[in-house]
Amino acid sequence: MTALRVVQVGAGGMGRAWLATVAADPDVELVGIVDLDLDAARAGAAVAGDPSIPVGTDLSALIADTGAEAVLDITVPVAHHPVTLEALRAGLPVLGEKPAAQTVAEALSLAAAAEATGKLFMVSQSRRYNDQLVAFRQHVRDLGAIGGLSTRFAKAPHFGGFREEMDDVLLLDMAIHAFDSARYVLERDPVSVYCESWNPSWSWYRGDAAAAAVFAFEDDVRYVYDGSWCAPGAETSWNGDWRASGAGGTALWDGDHDPWSDLDGTPGTPAAAPSVGNEIAGSLASFVHAVRSGETPDGEVHGNVMSLTMVDAAIASARSGRRIVIDEVLEQAHAAAIAHEQDPAVRERLTSWGSVRGALAAGSTDAATVG
Fold it and tell me: In terms of DSSP bridges, do strands 241-246 and 249-253 run parallel, antiparallel, or are they unpaired?
């Protein structure tokens, strides 16, 4: 089968990492780069190993000129909705950087757009593509009934730039990885959350760089997140430090090494699972496979919206000081999406939904038939 012809939108810092990844994947052919800064696009072509790759500022025009079969949206979050919508309307499947969109309402709009166009929109939740995380879920499956899962995250990066000026920087920019992984490990979705966030006196961030959240999941399972981005010394892995407790024992993963489990004094030996690849390279390979096979990938937008909703709900809880019900956040975002939607076909899909949770579950299943 010939390589999938892709146009990438965005050639900044993260864009360059994607361009190098695309260049290393024999199943993908980069046929164009779109960026508002043409010098950045040309530099990106050099990173991809071919300075002659066509560049431009107009996505639709470059799609038409190159015969692209798919789009990679590696833009800043504020651009995710317009760029992805333009690509879907052009009839192409899209792989986009997380988050799906800047808001849950925009993410719901893109889920409806994927339905209306019949095209796949997959969000690259890259930390799901980690064989150790997959193995950890295998250990958790062997624990029997699950009572709780926890993540401890402690890092102290000095990024400079926009992150140090963001509101709710930890929850918005990093916690979504852990929240998404928790859904993957538990194989359940959240019901409610109580969260507190704060900024330690020594923090170099303007917004809250620490947070603690307790999520109630389906089947009365609890997920506890305890994180900080200004915790120097004895730092955890970037994946965090995980513990799951069940009726049959406990499973542990430090985020950097193979997980293990103790089944009431007996080492756990779960069945091995197929490799999912590594981070964005694994995400790209999964997208290509999904486009070619029609199978639903991890990160398909209907399934991914709930991870972004967890972030919004945690922030709402921290600001209000009360427990937040996830379905309330979804319904409010749904109303906002309908009110602001400009595309009649997308609005029709949005208004056809009953409960948002039900529509997301059904849409994730139906996505297996789109390309």
Answer: antiparallel
Contacts 24+ apart (CB under 8 A), 160-165: 163/205, 164/204, 164/205, 164/206, 165/206, 165/207
- Length in residues, the chain: 371
Specify which residues 34 forms β-bridges with.
9, 56
Residue 352 three-state SS: helix
- Find residue 32's DSSP bridge partners: 7
Residue pair 103/39 in contact (Cβ under 8 Å)? The answer is: no
And the tokens for 221? 């399972």
The end-to-end CA distance of the chain, in Å, is: 16
pTM: 0.94
* Residue 344 exposure: Cα atoms within 13 Å on the Cβ side: 0
Say which residue the tokens 């990438």 belong to: 8
**Strands (E) located in 204-248:** 210-217, 221-228, 241-246
At residue 1, the pLDDT reads 76
Helix or strand or coil: residue 145? coil
Hey, what's the torsion of the CAs at 359, 296, 170, 206, to 10 degrees?
Answer: -80
Gap between the Cα atoms of 253 and 139, Å rounded:
10
Report the candidate in 230, 228, 252 with the shortest Cα–Cα distance to residue 241: 252
Token pair for residue 26?
């024999």
Structure confidence by residue, pLDDT tens digits, 179-233: 999 999 999 999 999 999 999 999 999 999 999 999 999 999 999 999 999 999 9
In DSSP notation, 23-60 reads: HT-TTEEEEEEE-SSHHHHHHHHHHTT-TTS-EES-HH
CA dist 314 to 39, 45, 49, 136, 215, Å? 39, 39, 42, 25, 9
Of 58-72, 213-227, 356-370, the one with minimum mean pLDDT is 356-370
**Sign of torsion over alpha carbons 329, 101, 278, 155:** negative
Q: Can you tell me which residue has the tokens 């900080």?
A: 228
pLDDT attached to residue 143: 98
Say whether 175 sits in a helix, a strand or coil.
helix
Token representation of residue 25: 């994947």
